[in-house]
Design a protein that fits this description.
This protein is mostly helical. About 60% of the residues lie in helices and about 0% in strands. It is built from 16 helices and no strands. α10 runs parallel beside α12 and α13 packs parallel to α15.
């Protein structure tokens, strides 16, 4: 054990090598920065929610299983947490009857947008058929058109969807076309929806001409006798000719490759547009 005297002797004895100096202290800012990096490495952000906060407890579903029809719709619509509402709709189906569909349409206008989308999407499969007049009326009366687009039109293929599209404003029809372009390949119903979105008055201020021509070209190549793609091309040439000035060669090429009778009408539109250039 070193005594005080020994320490003093070593301190003033020139033959004793000096003790190694301690490393220079880092500034507090530098240590703060390094500590932050260490903290991020040692304590990664958790990827799973805490059990107490999860909305997926089995008991959550029990109240909704005990009621049916419009009462179930009303009870589900009272869920303010979107994750809970989505989970319940994924495990407790709404009834496929007129009263339930009508109540769902009513609730859609009372909910905020994300909740309304999920609620409407739950009845979309029920609308893939010709609807009774009263049900059809209530579907068309929904005022939240953006929720109708995201919850119904993009997920069902019944006749009512065409009538819904015809109610949309031009900006919403533009959004619909962009959404449909991301959902290819198109069914005959999808083609009909896009064609109605383009042809409805008032016409759109802008149209994704390049993307639409690409889709039409591929469609005609696969089915030269198909009517849907040529009907869409005819709508483009007859209603949006001013936007096709730089695409007339492409339009003519697509129309010429078709074996459908509408090709004559399209080629006639192309010839007329060329005279106006």
């Amino acid at each position: 054990m070193h005594t005080i005297a020994t320490c003093l002797k070593n301190a003033f004895d020139p033959t004793v090598p000096p003790a190694p100096s301690s490393p220079p202290k880092r500034s507090s800012r530098e240590w703060d920065h390094l500590a932050h990096l260490v903290h991020r490495k040692r304590r990664p952000k958790p990827t799973t929610p805490v059990k107490e906060n999860t909305p997926f407890e089995p008991a959550l579903l029990e109240p909704f299983k005990q009621c049916r029809g419009p009462a179930r719709v009303q009870q589900i619509a009272q869920l303010s947490d979107l994750k809970q509402l989505t989970h319940v709709l994924g495990h407790v189906s709404l009834d496929n009857d007129d009263d339930t569909i009508i109540e769902t349409c009513r609730q859609a206008d009372l909910l905020n947008h994300p909740h309304a989308v999920q609620l409407l999407r739950s009845i979309a499969p029920y609308l893939d058929k010709t609807l009774p007049r009263l049900v059809n009326h209530h579907v068309l009366q929904i005022q939240n058109h953006r929720a109708v687009l995201e919850g119904l039109v993009l997920h069902c293929s019944g006749p009512v969807t065409i009538k819904l599209v015809q109610q949309f404003s031009p900006p919403l029809r533009q959004t619909l076309i962009n959404d449909m372009l991301a959902l290819r390949p198109w069914s005959p119903h999808s083609l009909h929806v896009v064609e109605k979105a383009l042809g409805q008055q008032p016409l759109l201020a802008t149209v994704p001409v390049d993307e639409l021509l690409h889709v039409i070209r591929l469609g005609v190549r696969v089915d030269p006798k198909g009517k849907g793609y040529m009907q869409l091309l005819l709508t483009l040439t007859s209603k949006y000719g001013a936007m096709l000035a730089n695409h007339l060669d492409a339009v003519e090429e697509v129309a010429s490759s078709s074996e459908m009778f509408l090709k004559r009408a399209v080629l006639g539109q192309v010839a007329s547009l060329r005279k106006k250039i």
